[in-house]
Amino acid sequence: MSMIEFKDVEKYYGDFHALKDINLKIDAGETVVLIGPSGSGKSTLIRTVNGLEEIQEGQLIVDGFDLHDPKTDMNKIRKNVGMVFQHFNLYNNKTVIENIMLAPRLVLKRDEAENKRIAMELLERVGLADKANNMPSALSGGQKQRVAIARSLAMKPKCLLFDEPTSALDPEMIGDVLKVMREIAEDSDMTMLVVTHEMGFAKAVADRVIFMADGQILEDSSTEQFFKDPSNERAKKFLSQVANH
Amino acid sequence: MTIFNHYSSLFYSGFGYTLLASLIALVASLVLGTLFALLQLSKKRLWSGLGNAYVQFFRNVPLLIITLFFYLAVAKVIKMTGFVAGTVALSLYTSAFIAESVRAGILSIDKGQMEGALANGLSYGQAMRVIVLPQAFKVAIPSLGNQFINLVKNSSILAFVGGLDLMYQGNLVAASSFDTFTSYIIVGIFYLVLTLPLSYGMQYLEERLQGNR
Predict the structure, then answer these.
(1) Interface check A83 vs B, CB under 8 A
(2) Exposed, middle or buried, A229 (CB in 10 Å: 0-12/13-18/19+)?
(3) Which tens digit of pLDDT belongs to each residue from B31-44?
């Protein structure tokens, strides 16, 4: 069953054609990594999946809902589709544990004791149980991102979107975040769509790699195939450039 | 001092009405101002246009004109005393300025806060109420403090429409005692009794909220 399906999707920012004729199907449980040079439309594409960006043409079906249909209730989709941002976007006016408990309380009406138990469990899982009552401003970037992941997981989503989750982190922080992401990919049947520049992570975790440039999908192959022998010339060039440093 | 002793009940009564008008107008203008700030920021053209028109109208017309409009025109349709007309006018007038402060506060909050909340499953209203507005108010406190202090001083507009406030009583005392200077000095001191604590209160609030960021 497909979790996310793009059919002939077009996206414009004014005159700028940001996504061109996107056709893409991601099955439930799959881990898909989206790579490409900056400005290629990766972030735009991932942000259309939970409706943070509107599409202008085509069909985008997420978890059975058509996002291009104005009657679709976006909140219903977002309940089941979590997102982790490059700049974390933790609630600056809430403590760490409140960040995690807020949406389950307001949206899912989860019982307060249960909510707290789940939140603490998640904090332990990302190794930050001792920071539960800190404000986000007291955390390092890597810690913030792990809290953000815990916040998304607290909603028990079917699908998680990662928009360059390690790009704003200091190098020594990246490993902890990737480790958490890897555990999610391996231990759960979560659908994951990840925009990243971490090739090691892609190689180790992804079922499929999608290469984008200039708003188009240029290659969509299995991870093994992609890293061994990409068919697209630009993908080849991109890989060799990334591999060189 | 003899003037004060002689007319103290008038001063106290005026002080009471000024305090009451200020409190009502403060709450009303804060609620209205926040509402119109949200309208101005709406993605729907109609709503944002409406919000904008309201703010532009009320902040660009003298308070005295608005007050007289309510006292002379609106009061013909809906019966109201000078006190009510003045307080309503003061609320509407101040709300336009508060809307601008709150709007600036909201715009200063990183877009990621709203996006994070929406992506987390919150509705726009929930995200605004629980995440964005509390942070926006924190930013807006110094400017809101200004508006509140202006509001208290502007409440002297009630004197023009027989609003029984401090300035109204001050005028009476000045006229019957013939000691204009002392009368208005006393009135001025009473205003300070209201505005100084307000001023320091807002400053305290600002510092305290900075602390627990």
Answers:
(1) yes
(2) exposed
(3) 999 999 999 999 99
